[in-house]
Amino acid sequence: MEIKTVGVVGAGTMGHGIAQVFAAHGFDVRLADTSDAAVGRGLAGIESSLERLLAKEKITAADKTSTLGRIGATTDLATLAGAELVVEAVTENLVVKTELLQTLDRVCGPETILASNTSSISLTRLAAATGRPDRVIGMHFMNPVPLMELVEIIRALQTAEETYRRIHDLALRLGKTPVSVRDSPGFVSNRVLMPMINEAIFALHEGLATAEDIDTVMKLGMHHPMGPLALADLIGLDTCLSILEVLQDGFGDPKYRPCPLLRQMVDAGYLGRKTGRGFYRYD
Ligand SMILES: CC(=O)CC(=O)SCCNC(=O)CCNC(=O)[C@H](O)C(C)(C)COP(=O)(O)OP(=O)(O)OC[C@H]1O[C@@H](n2cnc3c(N)ncnc32)[C@H](O)[C@@H]1OP(=O)(O)O
Ligand SMILES: NC(=O)C1=CN([C@@H]2O[C@H](COP(=O)(O)OP(=O)(O)OC[C@H]3O[C@@H](n4cnc5c(N)ncnc54)[C@H](OP(=O)(O)O)[C@@H]3O)[C@@H](O)[C@H]2O)C=CC1
Question: How many angstroms is it from 143 CA to the middle of ligand 2?
């Protein structure tokens, strides 16, 4: 069955970018979240991202209009029933994702592929929660989705070769570069990235330097496009904490222990860009 309609569940930092990229490549998209407010924020994010691309002359005004025209918003998961693919991009939490996948499993047709954008959680466990484990796969986009080229593709132990091939080809159609990674906590991207971000937070916690100076070291010293603390704010500090917990639990290795400052920031609701305050302020 050719993939024409794509459901995206979760209209947050990643979900709205994923919806945008599918729509920009001609797919009909249904973007779902739990409330009208969350869906509205997602649509506003898409509008502003397309506006930036237009200002940079990467797209035309007609591209912007047609992309927006292909996105429908909903709070009712039943409206995803006809989608050939659903990508979930909800909160990085095993229970939340498991319950959602079970609902999607009930609602969607038997052939629908259920892809997860999880940053770290075992695809094998997520697949096992459904009645279609052979059609569950990890499709891990990077943030910001419209700008980043990589998609990590993670096969659960149960994923069928056919499912993998279709998602691999789909990533290419979206103009992305797919990389296949075995199912293991944090895959490759966050196995490597999160310890660096965590270490930068420890450096701040221990008073080695200011947040700005820590980021400057990595930007000017290592040519990273963003410093690790600014990047943590872009990702979301709650998401960074959840990923580190999955790494720590999964490997049982104290080297992944989240910095106490990260926990405190999350407890305070300083989650980064999405709440207007993290290691920096975004007014
Ligand atoms: C956690 C996980 O599981 C996996 C992950 O995704 S880890 C995160 C991976 N991503 C990265 O490492 C990103 C590193 N940063 C970069 O590569 C670059 O800074 C960047 C591509 C994000 C922006 O580069 P740029 O286009 O030269 O910058 P610029 O035009 O000045 O825009 C920067 C800004 O727009 C965002 N942005 C730019 N264009 C955008 C678009 N079309 N849509 C959405 N956001 C956009 C940037 O985040 C940033 O926000 P502010 O202006 O509000 O500060
Ligand atoms: N941020 C990043 O840089 C990256 C994140 N990811 C992964 O993408 C996923 C989403 O992360 P991100 O976009 O950052 O998170 P956000 O917190 O920005 O957005 C999550 C969205 O999911 C919604 N949501 C939660 N539960 C449900 C549900 N049961 N049904 C529908 N919607 C729901 C939330 O709504 P509400 O607020 O109302 O709860 C919120 O709008 C996570 O798995 C994360 O690990 C992957 C790559 C990069």
Answer: 12
Q: What is the CATH number of the domain that holds 39?
A: 3.40.50.720
Give the total number of structural domains in the chain. 2
CATH of the domain at 264: 1.10.1040.10
Domain containing 35: what range? Answer: 5-182
Residue 93 among known ligand-binding residues = no
What integer is the mean pLDDT of 238-259?
97
Distance CA 172, CA 231 (A): 26
pLDDT, tens only, 133-181:
999 999 999 999 999 999 999 999 999 999 999 999 999 999 999 999 9
Cα separation of 196 and 105, whole Å? 36
Q: Which protein residue has the closest C-alpha to ligand 2 atom 40?
A: 12
pLDDT confidence band for 60 (50 / 70 / 90): very high
| Sign of the alpha-carbon torsion through 45, 50, 120, 221 | negative
Q: Which strand ranges, in their side-by-side order, compose the sheet holding 85-88?
A: 71-74, 28-32, 5-9, 85-88, 113-116, 136-141, 150-155, 177-182
pLDDT in tens, 76-92: 999 999 999 999 999 99
Average pLDDT value for residue range 230-253: 98
Q: Which of 239, 266, 270, 275 to mutate to test the pocket of ligand 2 (most atoms within 8 A of CB)?
A: 239
Instruction: Tell me the catalytic residues.
Output: 119, 140, 152, 190
For every residue of 83-131, DSSP letters joined together read -SEEEE---S-HHHHHHHHHHHHHHS-TT-EEEE--SSS-HHHHHHTSS
